[in-house]
């Protein structure tokens, strides 16, 4: 591949940050990896901006900021006609039918194009179909950003731990829940109070349902179980409990025994569960704030634990672009 | 000591073998929990699988293993498991209204689990309370049964159960 032609669908927090970092580090990536690329298309909910010769990323970002959309009038090409090598899929997560991400990804793979996604919905609902379509069309599908934000979990398992059989994974995969529980424990504050505070700080969304009911963690665990453990699970198979019922008093009772409560996701080949658990305060998994963490149980390397920021624009872009560099290397 | 070590061995099918194999265990003071002699599961080479479960200190474990090797006993696998004999559990909900006494009784009545400690925290009447229970198990292998009972109670009384990570 001489030059990678990139299409970004979904141009919000993640999509924009990916474009920004690609632009900013263009020369570094070229020197270090020989990576040459053009951003040939971008799409948001209102329309698209397309150019076979490559878009001006700086201008694109400022247009989006000023007008709220990148839609360009008089586009001669339709998004389905543009030629590209790599789709970066960053549309919103939808757990009902996975759309529009699912169709975006499937169409790209069917045409033999590689895909990187930060969108959990399609993978958690239709893993088999996506993995098979990628394989059949000799296309690559990478999704590190879907599970732990900045933390390399999928790549750790697939590359660094390739000689191992991984039997189970346990961890904290939702920064919003971890923040809420950490604050409730530290300040003896009730759930509602801390949730409001988290919303003011932009740590929790105005509709926090996905996070606090454990849905987000469950989606991530399904993706992990399927891709790392070879399970054939779907989101509907997960036993899910969230954190809404956790009281200040229960955290105080745990504290008396030098423990705390964390929302944990647990997966082995048979079972995936998401529920609050008591964790000793000196346990490796007992990280605070918005941090995420995961422990992989392996046959040769023992337990391997990784931790870091589970969300955020630049953290997520870090995973997306690392996947991109990996694809570039594999294709050259 | 709540570490159980399981030895999977294969013995020659001749008289006196089992006694011979058990000798190092008693010599080094291992507490033998069970011995299962799988006569019916002879290997293709005519050996008899034996599973021995013991409680023993780490340093003695090495001596036993060495001695078994000297006796030319085939060691297929040795693994260790920490068994849980007691654990904490948090209940959240109307713990008192729904009869805390009944909850405890139903655990104690099993005969193999007992509530040995209880702390209760109630913010206000009508609000949800939280309770920390400490349970002791007579037999570690009954753990899942106890958890089933707890789940049953919590569903019936609409309580949230929070288990320890290790349970
Ligand atoms: N933010 C994080 O830290 C993070 C971390 C890991 C994974 N993720 C995942 O990454 C994805 C993107 O997250 P985000 O935070 O960037 O979300 P976001 O800010 O809401 O951006 C979503 C983008 O998708 C566009 N979009 C919506 N419907 C569309 C459609 N039908 N066709 C084309 N584009 C459409 C939106 O258009 P408009 O701009 O016109 O509204 C917006 O540009 C989500 O699936 C999320 O779960 C996010």
From TrEMBL, chain A:
Active-site residue numbers: 220 (proton donor)
Alphabetized GO MF terms: homoserine dehydrogenase activity; NADP binding
Similarity field: Belongs to the homoserine dehydrogenase family.
Domain of life: Archaea
Pathway membership: Amino-acid biosynthesis; L-methionine biosynthesis via de novo pathway; L-homoserine from L-aspartate: step 3/3; Amino-acid biosynthesis; L-threonine biosynthesis; L-threonine from L-aspartate: step 3/5
Binding residue positions for NADPH: 120
Extent of the signal sequence: none
Binding site for L-homoserine: 205
Enzyme category, top tier: oxidoreductase
List of residues binding NADP(+): 10-15
Residues in coiled coil: none
Domain Homoserine dehydrogenase catalytic per the UniProt entry, residue ranges: 152-325
PANTHER family xrefs: HOMOSERINE DEHYDROGENASE
Descriptive protein name: Homoserine dehydrogenase
Keywords carried by this UniProt record: Amino-acid biosynthesis, Methionine biosynthesis, NADP, Oxidoreductase, Threonine biosynthesis
Domain Aspartate/homoserine dehydrogenase NAD-binding: 10-144
Pfam families linked: Homoserine_dh, NAD_binding_3
GO biological process: methionine biosynthetic process; threonine biosynthetic process
Organism: Methanohalarchaeum thermophilum
EC numbers for this chain: 1.1.1.3
Automatic annotation (TrEMBL), chain B:
PROSITE patterns (alphabetical): ACT (PS51671)
Coiled coil: 54-81
Residue ranges of every copy of the ACT domain listed in the record: 6-87
InterPro entries: ACT-like_dom_sf, ACT_dom, ACT_ThrD-II-like
Presence of keyword Coiled coil: yes
Keywords: Coiled coil
One Pfam family here: ACT
Keyword Transferase appears in the UniProt entry: no
Highest taxon of the lineage: Archaea
Name under which the protein is recorded: ACT-domain-containing protein putative allosteric regulator of homoserine dehydrogenase
Taxonomic source organism: Methanohalarchaeum thermophilum
Lineage: Archaea, Methanobacteriati, Methanobacteriota, Methanonatronarchaeia, Methanonatronarchaeales
